[in-house]
Write a structure and sequence with these properties.
- This protein has two helices and eight strands.
- The protein is of the alpha+beta class.
- Its main location: membrane.
- InterPro entries: Bact_OM_lipoprot/Surf_antigen, Gly_zipper_2TM_dom.
- Pfam families: Rick_17kDa_Anti.
Length: 210
């Protein structure tokens, strides 16, 4: 059997869209907190102690009498009258203050409205994207972040796909080129009755002679 020597093998490529198979997706979530202040009021019972002379004016009257007596001893005539009146007023005020400050009276309950501010914290979560694990056509795997959840496959751009091979060979002193679907397995091709033998040969695309 005769053989032709393979001189050159040139792959014929074509641009095609490349896809990868999705093998897993994981949602990426972002959590945010919101604080809302609000007023809380309640009725609270408080105790207070009344003055010992609750409702009486004993201190005021006593103070006025003492103040008047002291003022009456000052000056004479109209001056004594003025001093007496002034002493009565001053003594009444002092006695009234004594009544207010004096403790020891009965304890009473009263209700008062008390308010304070409280803050309520609420959390919310939303999906911001997906971590997608994929497998390429060559078997390699990878992970990428996507804004939305993909389907069964994802586009990976364009790739060069080999559609065949232009094989240049020499036989009987002549060089020829033939289109083959598959790459030759060796550097020689069989020749029968002057014809190149290959099951994947497509067509002669040119002839070059030395």
């Amino acid at each position: 059997m005769e053989y032709a020597d393979v001189l050159k093998v040139a792959p014929i490529t074509q641009k095609e869209k490349a896809y990868a198979t999705v093998i897993g997706t994981e949602a990426v979530r972002q959590t945010s907190s919101t604080q809302t202040p609000h007023e809380v009021c309640e009725d609270v019972v408080v105790q207070e102690r009344l003055p010992e002379r609750d409702g009486n004016v004993g201190g005021t009257v006593a103070g006025a009498v003492i103040g008047g007596l002291l003022g009456n001893q000052v000056g004479g005539g109209n001056g004594r009258k003025v001093a007496t009146a002034a002493g009565a007023v001053a003594g009444g005020m002092i006695g009234n203050n004594v009544d207010k400050r004096h403790v020891g009276g009965r304890v009473v309950n009263r209700t008062e409205r008390q308010c304070h501010t409280e803050t309520t914290t609420s959390e919310s979560s939303q999906v911001t994207g997906y971590n997608v694990t994929y497998r390429n056509e060559d078997g390699t795997t990878g992970t990428m972040r996507m804004d939305s959840k993909p389907g069964n496959r994802i586009a990976m751009g364009n790739t060069d796909v080999v559609k065949g091979y232009d094989v240049t060979y020499r036989y009987d002193g002549a060089e020829k080129t033939i289109r083959m679907n598959d790459k030759p397995a060796s550097d020689r091709l069989p020749v029968v009755d002057g014809q190149l033998v290959t099951q994947t040969a497509a067509a002669d695309v040119g002839t070059t002679r030395q």
